[in-house]
Predict the 3D structure of the following.
Amino acid sequence: EVQLLESGGGLVQPGGSLRLSCAASGFTFSSYAMSWVRQAPGKGLEWVSVISGSGDNTYHADSVKGRFIISRDNSKNTLYLQMNSLRAEDAAVYYCAKYFHSGTYSSTFDIWGQGTMVTVSS
Amino acid sequence: EIVMTQSPATLSVSPGERATLSCRASQSVSSNLAWYQQKPGQAPRLLIYGASTRATGIPARFSGSGSGTEFTLTISSLQSEDFAVYYCQQYNNWLALTFGGGTKVEIK
């Protein structure tokens, strides 16, 4: 069964840092680009970051550029999101998501994790 | 950035009735459009991709249509498990994926 399991969320003060992890299983992890998508409480979905299957290419939404870093360890089948300089507006449930088609970013998400909550507050 | 606008924000429908949800893109996304269903406390679930192709395991009562800037998700006969929030998403601009604001389908 294809599965994604996020961890690492929690309460952090404004300006602080947090690293999220997403453990993948049931598919050839290195063959697929992966993304992080977030959802603020009671709000819609916002794409955050994408990383290629090899990890060589990464892209971030303007709202997090320069503060968040997406990475992956294909030997551990794990995706990461390093979040620095956190702001109140970063508070959300963070989902990792698998791209439907291998080897491309021009694809939708077929598998989502259950999400991990990030709260930014003093 | 491609802005995705969904309407209506809330749709009140009786079980067994048809529901029609709309999604408009601020510029053409070709057929690179997906629909997701999200229930409270759950992750989104892929329903439709390529504007009209049902994902694996999705019942035939869900159908998608459209191309360019205008898209529609139709649920032919609403079941109790279909009451949820539905999002459209464009992946034509894959460096800046964007979602619509969502349509909540509620029981009338």
